Amino acid sequence: MAEPKTKYDRQLRIWGDQGQAALEKASICLLNCGPTGSETLKNLVLGGIGSITVIDGSKVELGDLGNNFMVDESSVGQSKAKCVCAFLQELNDAVKAKFIEEYPEALIETNPSFFSQFTLVVATQLVEDSMVKLDRICREANVMLVFARSYGLTGLVRISVKEHTVIESKPDHFLDDLRLNNPWPELRRLAETTDLQVSDPISHKHIPYVIILVKMADEWAKSHGGNLPSTREEKKEFKDLLKARMIALDEDNYKEAIDASFKVFAPRGISSDLQQVINDGCAEVDSSSLDFWIMVAALKEFLAKEGGGEAPLEGSIPDMTSSTEHYVNLQNIYFAKADADFLAIEQRVRNILKKIGRDPNSISKAIIKSFCKNARKLKICRYRLVEEEFNSPILSELQKYLTDEDYSVAVGFYILLRAVDRFAANYNSFPGQFNGAMDEDISRLKITAVGLLGDLGCNGSTLTEDLINEMCRFGAAELHAVAALIGGIASQEVIKLITRQFVPMPGTFIFNGIDHKSQLLLL
Amino acid sequence: MAETATQPSRSRDLDKLLLRPGNLVEPTFEPGPGLRDDLKEYVKVLVVGAGGLGCELLKDLALSGFRELEVIDMDRIEVSNLNRQFLFRVEDVGKPKAEVAAKRVMERVSGVNIVPHFARIEDKELEFYSNFSIIALGLDSIEARSYINAVACSFLEYDADDNPLEETIKPMVDGGTEGFKGHARVIKPGITPCFECTIWLFPPQVKFPLCTLAETPRTAAHCIEYAHLIKWDEVHSGKTFDPDDPEHMKWVYNEAVKRAELFGIPGVTYSLTQGVVKNIIPAIASTNAIISAACALETLKIASGCSKTLSNYLTYNGAQGLHTKVTEFVRERDCLVCGPGILVELDTSVTLEKFIGLLEEHPKLHLSKASITHRGKSLYMQAPPVLEEMTRSNLSLPLFELMGKISKDIVHATGTTIKNDKKTSSLIKLRVAFKGVDGVTDMDTAGGA
After folding, report:
1. Nearest residue of A to residue B110, measured between CA atoms
2. A278 pLDDT exceeds 90?
3. Rounded to a whole number, what is the distance in Å from the CA of B54 to chain A's nearest CA?
4. Do B2 and A169 touch (CB under 8 A)?
5. What is the rounded average pLDDT of the residues A251-279?
6. Which of A468, A449, A519 is closest to A158 using CA atoms?
7. Could you tell me if A508 lies within 8 Å of chain B, comparing CB atoms?
8. Disulfide-capable partner of B286 in A43, A399, B225, B321 (CB 3.0 to 4.6 Å)?
């Protein structure tokens, strides 16, 4: 067996030991193991997911060999679930893999409590009716659910979870938390005690820009009635003052200061995104509240009290031109402030827990620390039940998509993916599934799609003939390349849901395999 | 069911796309069993790289109707590949990637023929690459992409009006990933921008200034690079650092720790040391699967015309929600690689040796140690020694005679150039025209530079 640290090195660099531990604890249920489902699981098994249960009632047919890598010649006539499961096990012996030879539709009908044992269910190639039923079951049982479907050159991925909260959303580009617009006393003191006018040129060009800006902003405020630069002219004047302090052309620290001067002008306080989190109804906590919301409640108190309107400090600083000594000092000051903010939040968390009758130590220090460090980046994702979306999509959005050129193909596929299920319910096969009767299927699908649009309140909207033709041409084919792509996306969303890192996609992802202008539809 | 079920067939699903007419397809699309058979028999695809993308590409192509595949990769399997390169097992560690990948896919998909090449891409003759209908790239380096791009573009010919000749276009699909992000693109040299036209999409890696490392380290990475780039040479005079030698890596780590302690800098770990020194790009199975699938789908579309082709650059970002975007980049008119070629005008008396010398002095080229090929024939080869000896006698002959006394033609030169202070192999396409033959005007010559 390979050393897991080495084997998983390339992914540990993304989600760390904690993310990996979450994956290794998770148990995943897969419904239908055609290529879409098999490929989804493959990506999770390679990454070391805890356990998988493959559910499929069908036997391997010759046609499956042409689109599914996990079955081969020797599998024909055997249980598909069994064959796929055996191949997946071969990929990673650390994963517990098992299969159940049963049709998912039957399980959904007869044994709904079956699903409550899993962390997450990946449901592939289900038709609308089964999707709706399974969704209700999983929502009730508090099990995360991801739908994935490949259909010719289109397909979809849709998450269904009541509420998913993220502390470590890990955005790529996020403004660093330097507080240059609102420095706390220790930072201000450090700036005060630093002499910007030092005559030694080497020292002069190694004063970090953070200190330069805090000091210059202070000087500005003193001569402007306590205000920071706000008008365009003032901002320009401030930058010119910085430029005037340079004593040589190669002073990178001053160049960095000029580039970063907008951080001095930035408005104080928290972002509107964070404000929304604070205002969320769930932030009024009681004994049944999730740990996340208890910490939000503490944050809310902190903002009103110790924080003075600012979130707890993140505590890390980016690299910048500086002497080692200045930089390390600066780091220590940021770290100390972050630690003080953390202690204040921790105290509030413990008090709240006590007040609602829970063990004050039930949330660990490490989690509170992570919460404080990421307080500015908290994310909440909520998903409608698919039944609600199907019955009453957000009409204004739907109408916008139907008339927007960038969205027209994607929303067309969205409607058609639903229309083919209605079609199948009426005619016992998907349009174009078998050769012959193509023209009849095309006109039937068109009528079905127009009817569906009418039911959704979009009377008068139509889809292009070309797209309807294409949908019939697809004939419910599950192409390997499309399945691998849809499965890849589904597995990536599963990873984000389970590690509780990064941000899962909102809405429904509609794959457009014709020109790759895929879209997320928020309905 | 309304219809009798169709005959059981391995290509049950693919047939829907290849046998039925469609409306949103390329004008070249001719659906039918003939198309399906042509894909199997006549379309040869080369997969460059048998890593995270390459493994996926081989599987995807084998299940997308292609039968004749080849794969080239110079690497051997490592334990850290196993989290995503699904064709490899623990017991394969140390074996050549190309060979194991080809074997595994052939074992599972019957009828598919995959020829592995455990070799460097530069070691193959131009002719090797000319055999393929499409080249699919699963690479992680800019240099390798650049090289294959130049190879594919070298086949491109233009007519008298500088329009690309359809039959000389060698299409490429290219994928790349980093963490939750990736791109897939289609390159049709002469029609869509080549890799070099949009080289700015790949900004050069930022390096730390040496004075920061030596005098004002601030981060853990500074301490690591100090140990790696400065201290190593100071202590091990003459011995080159080998990033794959765990003893070497351990030494760098220990030195970095010492330096970090000296300056009070936190955060040096063994994992970070490896990451910084080897410039490790984080990689996961899901992103590779998504990008490879997009590339394989485009390969199928290029070969069959069964749907529109991506035009021409898809980006995927799954870190914050899910964002995909298609951008239609445009060609660089004067691209040295995919353009009609650099015109070099010569006197008919110029010898091959003189010509090679001119390439080194040429202000746009600076190509040293060039080997010269004309219409697939080696006129002079710098290496290997056997070929060098065989072609050496050509050096003293006039190029005009060696090229069969025609007024102008395309010549390929491979040699080394200096890019960002680094020696790189370059392949350059030249339009050689001889003065005074067939009305070529006697104007400024490249040789004058």
Report:
1. A73
2. yes
3. 14
4. no
5. 95
6. A519
7. no
8. A43
DSSP A59: B
For residues A98 and A72, membership in a common domain is answered with yes
Q: DSSP code of A25?
A: H
Residues of A in contact with B5 (CB under 8 A): 434
Residues B7, B12, B16, CA angle at the centre, nearest 5°?
110
Position B426 confidence tier, pLDDT thresholds 50, 70, 90:
confident
Per-residue pLDDT of B136-152, as tens digits, reads 999 999 999 999 999 99
pLDDT, one tens digit per residue, over B38-55 is 999 999 999 999 999 999
- Does residue B211 carry a catalytic annotation? yes
Q: How far apart are CA A38 and CA A494, in angstroms?
A: 14
Among the partner residues A2, A69, A328, nearest to B79 by beta-carbon distance: A2
Domains and CATH numbers, chain B: 12-203+284-327 (3.40.50.720), 210-278 (1.10.10.520), 342-448 (3.10.290.20)
Residues A294 and A430 grouped into a single domain: no
CB contact under 8 A, A503 and B320: yes
pLDDT higher than 60, residue B344: yes
pLDDT confidence band for B438 (50 / 70 / 90): low
* Contact: A506, B6; criterion CB under 8 Å: no
In the predicted structure, residue A119 carries a pLDDT above the cut 80: yes
Each residue's pLDDT tens digit, A19-33: 999 999 999 999 999
B 76-95 residues with CB < 8 A to A: 79-80, 82-84, 86, 89-90, 93
Yes or no, beta carbons of B108 and A489 under 8 Å apart: no
> What is the 3-state composition of chain A as percent helix, strand, coil, each rounded to the nearest 5?
55, 10, 35
pLDDT digits over A121-154, tens only? 999 999 999 999 999 999 999 999 999 999 999 9
- Please judge whether A319 and B218 are an interchain contact, meaning their C-beta atoms are less than 8 angstroms apart: yes
Residue of B nearest to A490 (CA): B286
Q: Which residues, 6 or more positions from A110, have their beta carbon under 8 angstroms from its beta carbon?
A: none
**Mean pLDDT lowest for which of A61-70, B219-228, B290-299, B417-426?**
B417-426
- ipTM for the predicted complex comes to 0.96
- One-letter amino acid identity for B22? G
Segments forming the whole domain that contains residue A436: 392-474
Distance from CA of B388 to the nearest CA of A (A): 43
A361 vs B8, which has greater pLDDT? Answer: A361
For the residues A402-421, what does the mean pLDDT come to?
96
- Is 80 exceeded by the pLDDT of residue B439? no
Sign of CA dihedral B128, B134, B139, B141: positive
Strands A519-521 and A508-512 turn out to be antiparallel
Helix, strand, coil percent values for chain B (each to nearest 5): 40, 20, 40
Q: What is the mean pLDDT of residues A302-306?
A: 97
Residue A486 lies in a domain: yes
Q: Which residues contact A306 (CB under 8 A, 6 or more apart)?
A: A341, A344
Q: At what angle do helices A185-192 and A324-355 cross, to 10 degrees?
A: 170
d(C-alpha A271, C-alpha A378), whole Å: 11
Do A364 and A486 lie in one domain? The reply is: no
The catalytic residue among B55, B153, B194, B211 is B211
Which residue, A439, A456, A474, sits at the end of a domain?
Answer: A474
Pairwise CB contact (< 8 Å): A503 & B16: no
Cβ–Cβ contact A343 with B under 8 A = no
Q: Is B46 left (phi over 0), alpha (psi -120 to 50) or beta?
A: beta
Q: How confident is the model at residue B442 (pLDDT cuts 50, 70, 90)?
A: very low
